[in-house]
Every structure is written in C-alpha cells, then in structure tokens.
Design a protein that fits this description.
The complex is a heterodimer of chains A (164) and B (167).
Chain A: E1 2-6, H1 15-30, H2 38-45, H3 49-58, E2 66-70, E3 73-78, H4 83-87, E4 105-107, H5 115-123, E5 128-129, H6 149-153
Parallel strand pairs in A: 1-3, 4-5
Antiparallel strand pairs in A: 2-3, 2-4
Helix pairs in contact in A: 1-2, 1-3
Chain B: H1 12-34, H2 38-41, H3 48-56, E1 60-68, E2 74-83, E3 94-95, H4 97-104, E4 115-122, E5 147-156, E6 159-166
Antiparallel strand pairs in B: 1-2, 1-4, 2-6, 3-5, 5-6
Helix pairs in contact in B: 1-3, 1-4
Classes of the chains: A alpha/beta (164), B alpha+beta (167).
Chain lengths: 164, 167
C-alpha cells in the first residue's frame, strides 16, 4: 500500500512543529503493528527531530524525500513550504498497511551540504537511513499456515468442505 | 457536486515563522558548506523559536554570526539583517535559498575546527525580549573588511531578511 501525508511547513508551521508532527505520524502509523512498540519507535526518532526541522525549513522534505517503508506500506511524508504550504491541507492521520510489520525503515534525504549531518543521525539509529527509498512497498511476509500434505494428496475434490 | 473552500488569513506571525525558518535554513547550509562540523551546526535548529518571537515583536534588527578558527582568529561574519516594510497583505511568501546556494558555492572551505557565535542585535529603539538559552553580550564585534551581499533570504508581508557575508 502506498500512502501520502502532508505537514505544511513555513509559514504555516515552524520547523520544530513540523518535526514533532512528522514523528507523530510515523509513530502512530507503526504502533498499529502489534509487533512494534510506540516508545521504542519514539525513542529512536526523537534525536532526529533537529535534523528534520532543518531539512523541512530548507525545503528538502517538499518533494517526497522522507519515506517510511515497512512490509505492506510505503508512506511518503511531504512538507511543502512557502506559498505551497498555504495551499496545502494538513493530513497527519496514521496510515494503514503496516499492521503486521515487524520491521521498518525511515528514509531521510541527505543532500549536500546536509549529508554529514543527516548521515550522523541515521548512523545512530538502526531504522534510519539516507539511502534512497524503494519505489514500491515491500511485500508482506506470507501468512504462516500448516497444510496436511498427506491429507491433501488423498483429498476428495468433490468434498468442498475440507477436513475437520 | 461538492465543493470545498479554504480560507487563509495571513498574520504577521506567519511572516515571522517564514523568516525564522529561512534564516535558520540559510545559516545551517552556509556553516555546513564552509566546513563547520555538523555536530555543532545541529544547534541552529534550536534558534528558530527565538528568531520567530523577536521578529513577531518587530524587535530583531539582525542576526550576526561570527566564525573563528581553532586559534580564535576571526574568519568570517554572516549577517542576516531584518527589515520591516509596510504591511501588504497581498505580498507573497518567498525565499531566496536557490540564490543563496549559488552564491554559497563560490565560498571556499574554512580550515577544520572552526566554531561560530550567534548574536541577535535589536533594531534601533527596541529591546530584545529574554529567551531561554540567550544571554547578554558585551564583547565587541570583530572588525570586517570586504562585505558581499548575498541577497534576500526570505520575505513575507511586513518583513524581509537579507544576508551579507564579510571577511
């Protein structure tokens, strides 16, 4: 599933406010998964807030550079600035699609001259990277099911009710 | 057919938010481009709130950033001067970041180990309100010689900021 969320930047919101909202969207999206813990995700993202604020003010989050990727979900968070921010509608609702996610990756843009700054933030967090995000969401792992192969071999195809 | 109408009322607070954001973005990029280490540059994000408050109060005259090498020798001064023209509600929010980036690319890298000091100067006849993390400066500014105008950093209804770089 692909999803997009928008947090208008300056002049609507300061970089600091934008960073808070962006992190909350990501945390709220990931906490829908029963495998992920809200506090653990928050703790990992909190140190990235200054970098997110600086990138937002510089306009580097305006064109899809910030992407959360989890099995079944590709969430792009956009922060328009200037006149585009005024015309944009804020949408910070948690995204669906990551309900079964056991892992996740937040792709941050690291353009020059921010490469070192953002790269250092990403290096301290196991789920953050400045690598380019994939174009599509990775597929969810197939549901683990058990099949009675012996029974399947002798299955009477006229019986649509299955084994009991 | 349903239609949705959005209305937007521009206030001077929006202008202050916009200018504080463009000043911090420009300052961050200049420091990083000049080779100031990113671990110290990250602190620039924390200045934005104070800048916005002072612009909202119309008390901020300029932000002066002095860069010194590891021996304390002055290397460069960046000055973001804020002007407060008459309010025009139809004025648009714009930034000059593309031009600042072009001009910035002409600056040569400073030696490693440089540090920077940020000072807010009030407009004539105004006083800057107290803000957390900011104190009073008594030290005189380092003398500068060559000054180059980088142009407008940002503008909005009722205020604009320009950047000057001196050595």
């Amino acid at each position: 599933m692909r999803a997009d969320r928008t947090v208008p930047g300056r002049p609507v919101s300061s970089g600091e406010t934008v960073a808070e909202k962006v992190v909350e969207v990501i945390v709220a999206t990931l906490e829908r998964s029963h495998h992920l813990n809200r506090e653990e995700v928050s703790q990992e993202l909190d140190p990235a807030k200054p970098a997110l604020a600086l990138l937002a003010n510089a306009g580097f989050l305006a064109d899809g550079g910030l992407v959360l990727v989890a099995p079944g979900l590709r969430l792009e968070v956009t922060v328009p600035v200037g006149e585009k921010a005024i015309r944009a509608s804020e949408d910070t609702t948690p995204a669906r699609g990551a309900a079964d996610a056991e892992t996740w990756t937040l792709h941050l843009p690291g353009p020059a001259p921010y490469t070192g700054l953002v790269g250092a933030v990403a290096a301290e967090a196991p789920h953050l990277t400045i690598d380019k995000p994939p174009i599509e969401a990775p597929e969810r792992a197939a549901a683990a099911v058990q099949v009675d192969l012996a029974g399947l071999a002798g299955l009477d195809t006229s019986n649509r009710g299955g084994r009991t | 057919v349903s239609t949705t109408t959005r209305t937007w009322t521009t206030t001077f607070t929006h202008t202050a938010t916009h200018l504080a954001g463009t000043i911090t973005a420009s300052l961050t990029e200049l420091l990083l481009h000049l080779g100031v280490h990113h671990t110290t540059v990250t602190a620039v994000a924390s200045y934005e709130c104070a800048f916005a408050v002072w612009i909202t109060e119309r008390s901020l005259g300029s932000i002066v950033v002095e860069i010194a090498d590891r021996y304390g020798n002055h290397r460069k001064t960046l000055e973001f001067a804020v002007d407060y023209p008459e309010w025009q509600s139809e004025a648009r929010f714009a930034d000059g970041l593309p031009r600042i980036r072009r001009e910035m690319s002409k600056l040569s890298l400073l030696p490693s180990g440089c540090t920077f000091t940020v000072t807010a100067r009030p407009r004539h006849g105004y006083r800057l309100s107290d803000q957390a993390g900011w104190g009073t400066r008594y030290k005189p500014f380092a003398p500068t010689t060559d000054t180059y105008n980088f142009g407008t950093v940002g503008r909005g209804p009722g205020a604009a900021a320009v950047l000057r770089v001196s050595t």
